[in-house]
Every structure is written in structure tokens, then in C-alpha cells.
Design a protein that fits this description.
Elements (H helix, E strand, L loop, with lengths): L3 E5 L3 H13 L3 E5 L2 H10 L4 E4 L8 H11 L4 E5 L4 H9 L4 E4 L4 H28 L1 E4 L2 E4 L4 E4 L2 E3 L3 H4 L1
Parallel strand pairs: 1-2, 1-3, 3-4, 4-5
Antiparallel strand pairs: 6-7, 7-8, 8-9
Helix pairs in contact: 1-5, 2-3
Amino acid sequence: MNKTILVVDDDIEITDLIEVYLANEGFNVIKCYDGFEAQKVLGDNEISLAIVDIMMPKINGFDLCRKIREQFSFPIIILTAKFEFTDKINGLSIGADDYMVKPFHPLELIARVKAQLRRAEIYNIQTKEKDSEYEISYRGITMNRLAHKCIFNNTELVLTPTEFD
């Protein structure tokens, strides 16, 4: 399955350049030119990673990053002309996984995209394996001791800690 990368930047030339490099690596690319447009795309597509500019009309990259983190856990790379130390700290603090400053080298961006996707895949596999160690299933009941959840016939049961124990 090809991974889909969301590129959000109001500079059309930059989004086109990024699209060419990502497409050459076999990625599907969805381009948006502001944060508002990107929010619409998020619900309709399975995004593997987002590359987000900070300075955009309507919804800036910081606000978009916050919105993404409310629902999704895919990696976010901020790609921006803002190079101040405080901007980098702010971007990473609100949920970005990486921060690159423009001008940038496209091959470095591709390397960072691949690294973030690799880390996300490994983390997700390890999390699933870890969860399965703590999961017990019997006659329609599934209990996950790590997540503290009990599911009966595909419906999550709300249990107190004592009931769960």
C-alpha cells in the first residue's frame, strides 16, 4: 500500500517541488494551500505523514498541528521560513515530530519523511505486539489488561476498576 503524504503550504512552487520528490519515491501526495483546506482533507483520507508550513492564510501551521493532534497520531514535519529558536520549540511542543527551515534541500526532506515513517511503523508494530501480550479473549469477551478495557461482542463495557479486576 502506498503511503499518503499531506503537504500544506501556501507556496504553490514549494508544494509542487515536494510533490515531485515524494512521487519519485512512490508516495501519494495530497496538496493543500491553507490549513482550512487541510482540515477538510484529513477526515476523508488516510494520511501517513503531514508536511506543514507555519505561515499560511486562514489557519496557520501551529493551529493546524494542534488540530491534527486532537485526532491523529501520524508524524508531522514542520517546514517553514521561521527559524527562531522559540518557533522551533513551539512547533515541537504542540505536536510536530520534526522541524525544518526553508530554504531546504529536497533530498534531506525525503530522508526525514522516510525516517519519521519508519519510526511510526516500528512504534505502531511494537505497540500492537505489546497490547496483544496483555489481551485475553474467551467466548466473545476480550480483556486488555494494559489498556484496562473489556469488550463483549464488539461493544466496550464500562467497568469500575474493581469490576475489571
